[in-house]
From TrEMBL:
Keyword Nuclease belongs to the record: yes
Protein name: CRISPR-associated endonuclease Cas1
PANTHER family in the cross-refs: CRISPR-ASSOCIATED ENDONUCLEASE CAS1 1
Quaternary structure and interacting proteins, as annotated: Homodimer, forms a heterotetramer with a Cas2 homodimer.
Annotated organism of origin: Caldibacillus thermoamylovorans
Job of this protein: CRISPR (clustered regularly interspaced short palindromic repeat), is an adaptive immune system that provides protection against mobile genetic elements (viruses, transposable elements and conjugative plasmids). CRISPR clusters contain spacers, sequences complementary to antecedent mobile elements, and target invading nucleic acids. CRISPR clusters are transcribed and processed into CRISPR RNA (crRNA). Acts as a dsDNA endonuclease. Involved in the integration of spacer DNA into the CRISPR cassette.
Length: 343
């Protein structure tokens, strides 16, 4: 369990939440695992669904402390809030900002700054770790170009221009992505991003990783009371979790891309894990999908230092922390939305 930003994250499986005076206690098979004062909490996020006592839910509802239930894999199940106070003010602010393109751009540019910064440091780290296996000069040139684009993005107040700058940065990064594949290069290669359907093994894995990340991020946003379907950079489209796609931009490279590269370079996956359909789409086998999901869950348990909080958290909690920070910004508790930076 972990307390961050006045939110208690209960990440251990099979934990029951109960009330003891003005405290929440965490029980597993009648053993007390922890005790926290409720007056310090704004919300409780429980991974797993063993349950919570009616007394605790009633206490929290009266004091506007939300209780969020997710599966152990991070899928959103339910959010318990009191009366109609819930999230109406937060969501109304989200909708107002989304309707204002200039205000949207000022938030969206921070998502893009985070994405480009993280992609820049993926390239920088490669020059440090694999100087004899990549073209260091090209990587350094790309890193410098990304730094220049970041400065332009920071000043941008127009959504269309912001999308253009993001596209320039993506092109710069994608040109070198194939060099980050160090093993099994005959079977795993990246020439460009393709989807619907993916036509090679790498794009098939990237699409799957992005889908998982989008689902995790949407759950995190629902957990803090935001509408995952109303975004700032990605505009409204029926059935699209636009805000989740916004927030996950800064995590695509550092979270999903690096994960896919690790599966290839450590030979967790191989050519036999894929097959091509008649329409040219490359699909992962059922066994490969199981390996992928198992590794994804393991990666979510690995620790990372969150630069804004200055604390070590698991990778799996990063979308939840970013969702909390975005909600705080929209409530005017923060002057600016702080993107997730990795280095």
């Amino acid at each position: 369990m972990k307390k961050l930003l006045n939110t208690l994250f209960v990440t251990q499986p099979d934990v029951y939440l109960a009330l003891d005076g003005d405290n929440i206690i965490l029980l597993k098979e009648q053993e007390k695992l922890g005790r926290f004062p409720l007056h310090n909490l704004e919300s409780i996020v429980a991974f797993g669904y063993t349950g919570a006592s009616p007394a605790l839910m009633g206490y929290c509802a009266e004091r506007n402390i939300s209780i969020v239930f997710l599966t152990m894999n991070g899928r959103f199940l339910a959010r318990v809030t009191g009366e109609s106070r819930g999230n109406v003010v937060l969501r109304k602010k989200q909708y107002r900002v989304s309707d204002d393109e200039q205000a949207s751009a000022k938030i969206a540019r921070n998502f893009i700054v985070g994405k480009i910064f993280n992609n820049k440091w993926i390239l920088e780290r490669a020059t440090r770790d694999y100087p004899l296996r990549i073209d260091v000069a090209k990587f350094k040139e790309a890193s410098s170009n990304l730094s220049t684009i970041i400065q332009d993005v920071r000043q941008c107040e127009d959504l269309e221009r912001l999308r253009g700058l993001e596209g320039q940065a993506a092109t710069c990064y994608n040109k070198l992505f194939n060099q980050l594949i160090l093993q099994q290069k005959e079977d795993f290669y990246f020439h460009s991003r393709n989807r619907r359907p993916p036509t090679d093994n790498v794009n098939a894995m990237l699409s799957f990783a992005y889908t998982l990340l989008a689902n995790d991020t949407a759950s995190a946003l629902e957990g803090v009371g935001l509408d995952a379907y109303v975004g700032f950079l990605h505009r409204d489209r029926p059935g699209r979790v636009s805000l989740a796609l916004d927030v996950m931009e800064e995590l695509r490279g550092v979270y999903a891309d690096r994960f896919v590269l690790s599966l290839i370079n450590t030979k967790v996956v191989n050519r036999d894990d894929f097959y091509k359909k008649e329409n040219g789409a490359v699909v992962m086998t059922d066994e490969a999908r199981k390996k992928f999901l198992k590794s994804w869950q393991s990666r979510k348990q690995e620790k990372i230092t969150h630069t804004f909080l200055g604390e070590k958290i698991s990778w799996g909690l990063v979308p939840h922390v970013q969702a909390l920070l975005l909600a705080r910004f929209l409530r005017s508790d923060l002057d600016e939305y702080p993107p997730f930076f990795w280095k």
